[in-house]
Every structure is written in structure tokens, then in C-alpha cells.
Design goal:
Helix content of chain A: over 70%
Largest interface: A-B, 21 and 26 residues
CATH class of the largest domain in chain B: Alpha Beta
Radius of gyration of chain A: 24 Å
Number of helices of chain A: 13
CATH architecture of the largest domain in chain B: 3-Layer(aba) Sandwich
Structural class of chain B: alpha+beta
Oligomer: heterodimer
Number of strands of chain B: 20
Number of helices of chain B: 8
């Protein structure tokens, strides 16, 4: 329109250029390569053959893969749900705690990160081990009989996934809960809301942004989870990530790995895009006045 | 009409601070009642006790004869207008106003009808679909009013509702609140530190200080007949004079002996006996100033003084004078302006006089309250 606005547009364009190149080089190009790979024939020696084929993609309709994709989805969904159930009260409690206690709790949330992810997952293996103290304790209490296996099932996968993802859910929810204006809860109670109604109708919408972030940063990595099911999941409980790794490292069938990766990418994109669309509908149509000019 | 909202011997302590100290208060049905006091005087705690956000350490609260002390906020037929308004940012104006009725699970048709009526009452029909962040301060305030009133509370609690507004808007909302009170006719409990708001709106005022009520009464009584030095000094401005009751020439009047001044007559309805030390409060506008000695009249007090400062304010002029060892402030209204009048100037010898009924004997006096009154100007090279 006018010169000033055009200059600002140019400035914005130049400023986004580096991140644009970065994302293109390390995200877009590899993704396109994976797509191309999926349409190449595999050669018997683990390489990639010449020409094009859709056989790989068609082979994904195999019920075996569908079952794995479905399992991956619901394991991730359940893990994410459990994470939120634990993270919302935690985030609320941390946000309302005194400053000293708040820092202590946040430290406790973050400290596990100082240990390698792999070691933490292996630690669970010994915790849930048939000779481990949890099993022994449950046996002693008569909750489980000695033949019950705590390891190598989907419950173990979900348990460890929730454990490793929980900090990523707590931190954004805490950040939102910390900024929340708790006088709104009083206002809701004043207007007749019971404590839980105030929580549901005022607090949860108030920390909506934190909830969305928590869902994204927990659900998406969970979809691609590969180490956890590999270590505590056992043979019958592999997820998409395990299948992809298996195709790459064991079968040396890169096109099939590429095809499975596409399924995973689509599974990741679906929630992401739906959130973006939802947000665009809610907030994007009405930019707050004045901000654009400053 | 009997008491409607009743506080009985309420005490509340926060850590080391005694916010409210054994306060009893009765508010009548339909009354516009103000709790007035400086910040930290306990007035907001009183409001929060009525709303149910604070449980008193001691004492009971009754609403329409029913003990509500232990009821949670959502079970009380009172609603609050918060200082920050506390509008729900994720809801539109309409949804904010409908909140209470939705929680109460009222039928949709009834909610729609009541919300429309409220939108009309606060004149926000054309803003109904907007989010609160897009509203001006005055509009937000009106949403808060509508959101509270739609529940038809027995008492509306207002916590410094105008503090967040600028002066012009505050004056307009003041009138608006008054109109709304007249129209809906419910009991208003209004908490403020602003004496102007309290005086112009209320039927009665309770002046609070340090967790206690200093005086309860209609605005004019609070202003004209303050009982304590705090009330006299916090509301408006005043002059304090310390004296000793000398004699009773008339049953209701005493002669007061004040150090460094001629004796003055003062209305003594409290029957304070001879020889007692008392404090007198005389409002600056009750004092008259003149260059000539006024003719002696029954119950007229006249003391000679020297002008220390003259502050011309347009509609009136403020004079600071020294009478004996007392500094007095006088506010003089200009009735008619004469160009040839010889104005009273700095260092002029003058007479200050007032009627015996205009000086008020205080029942309670604290030295600290002297700091609340305007201080005499400090001149360079004085002392």
C-alpha cells in the first residue's frame, strides 16, 4: 500500500529468510527425500533401485501395518491424556505455591533431564523387572500373582511414556497457570459456580494455550516413540517407530521405511493442522487493535 | 425496616496484621452503604467476608436474618463487582453476563431475555458479541455491573469499582451507579477510599481505620459532626484546637480555654465536665476572616491572627493564619468580587471568627491524625 508498510514487509521477509533456509534444508528437503524414497523400488542388497513404483505404498494396506498404526495412535493418545490429567493439577499447584516452594518443585520436574533418556528408560526396566521391588511389593501385598509380568506389555510402554513426557506437559501448563488471573476463579465462585465448575469453565479455558502446547509437545513425539517400546514393550507391542527402525536396520528396505514414515508424518500433521485451523478460527480472525501499528 | 446485612463482632487477622478488629455493622435493606477508609483499614476484608472469600476468625455475618458465615461464595445471594472487574477474557460480553444464569441452569429463553434486559440497562446492546479486551474501561465496568445484577442478588458488593477509571469517566459512572441503584433497588455495599464517591452516593457511610469503625452515619453527619480526629481529618480538611473546658455559661455550651487564644464558646452536647481536656475540630470553611474586628455577638468566637499565606483558588481562597501558637486554615468563598476591595495579604493582621455551633468537640483524638490535615506552608527563613 504505502512505502512504510512495504518497507516493513521487506524487513519481515529478510528477517524470516534464515529460518526459512534452515527449515528448508533440514526439514523440507529430507521430508521430500523420504517421499521420493517411498516410490522407488528396493533392490535386494539393501540399496535403492531404479525407476518408480507404487508397490510399497500399496503394501502398507497390509492389516499388519494398520494394526501397528492404530496401536501407535491410541498408545500416544492415552499417554497424552494421562500426562494432561497429571500435569494440570501439578501446574496449578506449582503456580499457586510460594516462590521458594515453586522453584523447588520446578527443579524436581527438571532434574531427571540431567540423566540420559536411555538410562532413565533402562532404569524402568529394572524397576518393573520380575525381581524388581515393585513386583515384589505387589506380590507381597497379594495384588498380583507371581506369574504376572509387569514388563513387556503396552501398560509398561504407556507408563514409561507418561513418565518421560510428563515434564513437557507440566512446563507449558505451569507457564499458563502462572499467568492466569486467579481473581477470575473468585468471580466465578461469586456468580454461583462450585469449585469444580469454576475450574472447568474459567481455569481450563484460561490456560488453553498451555494445554494446546502440552498436547502438541507430548502427542507428536509419542507418535514417533521408538526407544521405549523397544526396551519395555516386548515383541508383540511394537509401534510405528520400531517398524521403521526394523525396516532400515534389519531388512535394509529403505523404500518401505520411507512409506511408513509418510504414514507417521501424516499422523503428526493431522493434529497439528487441526490445531492451527482451530486457532485461526478463534484468535486469528480478530487481531487485537493497536498491536499492528506499534 | 430492619437490618438486612449484619456483621456481628467480626475479627480477621492476616499473619501479624489485624485487618478487622471486632467490628459490628448493620446495613438496611435497599440502602446504599459505603465503607470508607484509607488502604489497609480493613474495608475490603469486610466486603470479602460478606462475599464469602474470607472466613472471619471470630464473629458472625447474617443476611436477611440467616447466618451465612460458613456458606461458600456460590451459596450466597450476594454478588461482587471486583476492582479489576475480573471479566472472563475467553467469553463475550453476552456470555459474561449470562454466566451466573448458565451456572444456575436457567432455561435458555429466560437467560436470553434477562441478558437482553441487562444489556439494555447498561447500554451495551451493540457490544454484546465483543470480547472484554476490546472494550473501554467504562464499558468493562458496566459489563461487571450487569454480570452481577443479573443474578438478582440480595446485596451487591462493590470493591472500589471506579478506582481503575480516569477522573471524567469516574464522575459519569458515579451518576450511572446511582441511577442503577435507584432503578434496581437492591442493597449496595460500596467499598472505597475516595471520600467524594462515598459522600455523593451513599445513604450512610461507615468510616474505617485500622480495622475498626470510627463512625457510622449519613454523609452530612460524618462531615459536619465528626466524632473522632480521624474522621474529621480524613474526610475534608479541618483545624484542630486543644483546650480545657472552663465553665458552662449555658447548659449546652461550654467556655473552652485554649493556650495562647482568648476563650472560645463551643457547643457541648456531650456534657464534658469542667476541667477536662478536649479537642476541637473546626472546618476551614466555617471560619471567617476579616481585617476588622467583628462586633461581639453571643456565641461568636473571634481571635486575632496574622496571615501567613494566601492561596487564591478561583471559586475560593485559602488563608493560612497564625493565631497565638496555632496554625489555622480558612477557606473563604467569594460571594461578590469588588475591584476596589483591599485584599487580605501576607503578614496582614486579621480577625478570625466563627460561631460556637461550628466548632466540634471530638470524643477521640490521636496525635497521628494531625498528619492527615493539610500542613501549614513552610516558609524559607521562618522559625
Amino acid at each position: 500500500m504505502n512505502a512504510g508498510r512495504r518497507a516493513r514487509r521487506l524487513q519481515e521477509f529478510l528477517l524470516t529468510l534464515p529460518s526459512f533456509f534452515w527449515l528448508s534444508l533440514f526439514f523440507l528437503v529430507p521430508t521430500v527425500l523420504v517421499f521420493i524414497l517411498a516410490f522407488r523400488p528396493a533392490d535386494p542388497f539393501g540399496g535403492i533401485g531404479q525407476g518408480w513404483t507404487t508397490a510399497t505404498i500399496r503394501s502398507l494396506a497390509d492389516p499388519q501395518y494398520l494394526a501397528i498404526a492404530w496401536r501407535t495412535l491410541w498408545v500416544s493418545a492415552v499417554s497424552t491424556g494421562l500426562c494432561l490429567l497429571l500435569a494440570v493439577p501439578t501446574g496449578y499447584a506449582v503456580a499457586r505455591a510460594s516462590e521458594r516452594r515453586r522453584n523447588t518443585i520446578l527443579m524436581l520436574v527438571i532434574v531427571p533431564f540431567w540423566t540420559s533418556f536411555l538410562i532413565r528408560v533402562f532404569a524402568w526396566k529394572s524397576i518393573l523387572h520380575p525381581e524388581g521391588f515393585i513386583k515384589k511389593a505387589l506380590e507381597f501385598l497379594g495384588v498380583v500373582d507371581p506369574s504376572t509380568q509387569l514388563l513387556y506389555n503396552l501398560t509398561a510402554v504407556i507408563l514409561v511414556t507418561v513418565y518421560t513426557s510428563l515434564p513437557f506437559a507440566i512446563l507449558p501448563i505451569y507457564a499458563a497457570a502462572e499467568k492466569f488471573d486467579y481473581r477470575l476463579i473468585e468471580a466465578a465462585r461469586d456468580l454461583g459456580a462450585r469449585p469444580f465448575q469454576a475450574f472447568r469453565k474459567v481455569f481450563l479455558p484460561g490456560i488453553r494455550q498451555g494445554l494446546i502446547t502440552a498436547v502438541l509437545v507430548v502427542f507428536i513425539p509419542d507418535l514417533g516413540s521408538y526407544i521405549i517400546p523397544d526396551i519395555v514393550g516386548g515383541p508383540g507391542n511394537e509401534l510405528l517407530g520400531n517398524k521403521i527402525a526394523q525396516r532400515v536396520f534389519v531388512d535394509r528396505n529403505l523404500p518401505l521405511a520411507g512409506g511408513l514414515s509418510i504414514v507417521l508424518i501424516l499422523a503428526v500433521l493431522a493434529p497439528l493442522l487441526s490445531v492451527l485451523v482451530l486457532q485461526g478460527k478463534k484468535g486469528g480472525t480478530q487481531p487485537p487493535p493497536g498491536n499492528a501499528a506499534s | 425496616m430492619s437490618e438486612f446485612l449484619e456483621y456481628q463482632n467480626i475479627s480477621k487477622r492476616f499473619g501479624l496484621i489485624q485487618a478487622v478488629n471486632d467490628v459490628s455493622l448493620e446495613i438496611k435493606r435497599g440502602e446504599f452503604f459505603a465503607l470508607l477508609g484509607p488502604s489497609g483499614c480493613g474495608k475490603t476484608t469486610m466486603l470479602r467476608v460478606a462475599a464469602g472469600f474470607e472466613t472471619p476468625d471470630a464473629g458472625r455475618v447474617f443476611l436477611d436474618g440467616r447466618d451465612i458465615t460458613d456458606l461458600p461464595p456460590n451459596k450466597r445471594r450476594v454478588n461482587t463487582i471486583f476492582q479489576s472487574y475480573a471479566l472472563f477474557p475467553h467469553l463475550s460480553v453476552r456470555e459474561n453476563i449470562a454466566f451466573g444464569l448458565r451456572i444456575a441452569k436457567k432455561p435458555k429463553a429466560e437467560i436470553d431475555r434477562d441478558v437482553e434486559a441487562m444489556l439494555h440497562l447498561v447500554r451495551l446492546e451493540d457490544q454484546a458479541e465483543k470480547k472484554p479486551e476490546l472494550l473501554s474501561g467504562g464499558q468493562r465496568q458496566r459489563v461487571a455491573v450487569a454480570r452481577a445484577l443479573i443474578n438478582k442478588p440480595d446485596v451487591l458488593l462493590l470493591d472500589e469499582p471506579l478506582a481503575a477509571l480516569d477522573l471524567k469517566l469516574r464522575q459519569r459512572m458515579l451518576i450511572e451507579l446511582d441511577l442503577i441503584h435507584d432503578r434496581v433497588g437492591i442493597t449496595f455495599l460500596y467499598v472505597t477510599h475516595d471520600q467524594g464517591e462515598a459522600m455523593s452516593l451513599s445513604d450512610r457511610i461507615a468510616v474505617m481505620n485500622e480495622g475498626r469503625i470510627e463512625q457510622i452515619g449519613p454523609p452530612a453527619e460524618i462531615y459536619e459532626a465528626p466524632r473522632t480526629s480521624f474522621v474529621a481529618a480524613f474526610i475534608g480538611d479541618t483545624n484542630f484546637l486543644e483546650g480545657v473546658v472552663a465553665e458552662h455559661p449555658e447548659p449546652e455550651y461550654s467556655r473552652l480555654r485554649i493556650d495562647g487564644l482568648p476563650d472560645v464558646m463551643v457547643y457541648n452536647d456531650k456534657q464534658i465536665g469542667d476541667g477536662n481536656k478536649v479537642f476541637l475540630s473546626v472546618r476551614p470553611e466555617k471560619l471567617q476572616i476579616s481585617r476588622d474586628e467583628p462586633e461581639p455577638k453571643l456565641k461568636r468566637n473571634a481571635v486575632p491572627a496574622v496571615v501567613e499565606d494566601v492561596i487564591y483558588l478561583g471559586p475560593n481562597t485559602k488563608y493560612w493564619v497564625r493565631a497565638g501558637n496555632h496554625h489555622l486554615q480558612i477557606l473563604r468563598q467569594h460571594a461578590r468580587f469588588f475591584l476596589d476591595e483591599k485584599p487580605i495579604r501576607w503578614k496582614d493582621d486579621v480577625w478570625v471568627f466563627w460561631h460556637g455551633d461550628d466548632g466540634f468537640m471530638l470524643e477521640g483524638f490521636r496525635k497521628a491524625d494531625e498528619k492527615l490535615v493539610a500542613a501549614p506552608p513552610q516558609k524559607l527563613g521562618d522559625e
